Structure formats: C-alpha cells, structure tokens
Amino acid sequence: MTATEQPFTHARRPALRLEVGHGTDRGLRRELNEDSYLAADPVFMVADGMGGHEAGEVASQLCVQTLREAPSLARGTHRATATSVQDTIRRADWRIREATGARAGTTLTGAVLIEISMVPYWLVANVGDSRTYRMNSGALEQISVDHSEVHELVEMGEITPEEALVHPRRHVVTRALGTGDDADADFWLLPVADGDRILVCSDGLT
User: Fold this and answer.
1) Which CATH number fits domain 2-144+177-201: 3.40.1580.10, 3.10.290.10, 3.40.50.300, 3.60.40.10?
2) Which residue, 38, 113, 126, 164, could crosslink 109 as a Cys pair with Cβ 3.0–4.6 Å?
3) How far apart are CA 183 and CA 92, in angstroms?
4) What residue ranges do the domains of the chain occupy?
5) pTM of structure
C-alpha cells in the first residue's frame, strides 16, 4: 500500500491517493490457508487463523467481519481511535470464543488510516506474530512487535535472533484473539509521509 500526497482538494488539507494491492495463497508448506484480510480505506489488516480443521479460517473470517461491521471503521471514514479499534478487537475476540469454544484463534495486524486535527496518520495495531512494516526512502522498518515466545526469549538474551528462526517453539504466540489468552493490541501512531509503503503480512510470507 502506497500513500502519495496530491494537490489540495480541501481548504485545510491535501488529499491522499492510496494504491492498494492484496492477495493470499496457501503456499507450499501448509495444507490450509487460514488467512483473511480487509483492504478497504481506512482499514488494512491481516488475520492469520490457527486451530486447524478449518477452525482457524473461521476465526480469521470472524475477526475481519467484525472489523468490517464496526461503525468507527466504516469505509471512507478516518475517525477511529486506538480505543475504538481496541473495542472492536475485543468484540472480535468474544465472537470467536463464542463460535469456536476457545478452540481456535487468530492473530491480527495492520494499519488504520485516521485523521487528527485534519492531519493523516497510520494507526498500527498488532496482536500476535503477524507483522506490519513501513518502507520509506528505501528503508524497510518493522513497526509491529511480535507477541511470541521466541521474541520474549530474544528480548531476555536467552537466544539470538538467528536461533529464533529455527527454535522449536517459534510459532507459539503469547497473544491472540479467540483463545482466551491476552487479546489486547499494541498500538503505534505514525504520521503519513509522502511515498509511504505499508506491508501487512502473516508469518507465512517469506
């Protein structure tokens, strides 16, 4: 997703032009594709389901459906806040637990385009180990922080980042929606810059 400033179309702010690409694929290593996504201004998010036997797919689809139905995230509006997004995430968490009996869950990551005093920002949210990146001026930066056992081990200095890539518990998340675990998101607020590229992906992207 790329943001580009255009000539003024409003007395108080420039318009933004968004170029959006999206897709999902099972890949070569998995039998099921349990990813779901929403890519419609103002919401650009990916949910990676887990649980197997299609339960993970149900979880990720319910998550995205809840985002799509949230009034504060209505298409073309930019009035969301971290509080309203967290409220929506908690509702998704409840719906997934009700539907699956806490036997399935999903990660969630991505960006919501919002305005504060007519200035555009990316509100990045994350639960789990899917990731949101930003590229600008040729530099790729990971914005989200993984909620995973291996990330905690790296932070404590018990393993190296290289060891985390092959650790037997590298796929164990410490936060997720629908599982009964912590479902609170972490948030980051980033001013929109001309030429921003936002990459939102599950851990299956290599």
Assistant:
1) 3.60.40.10
2) 126
3) 10
4) 2-144+177-201
5) 0.87
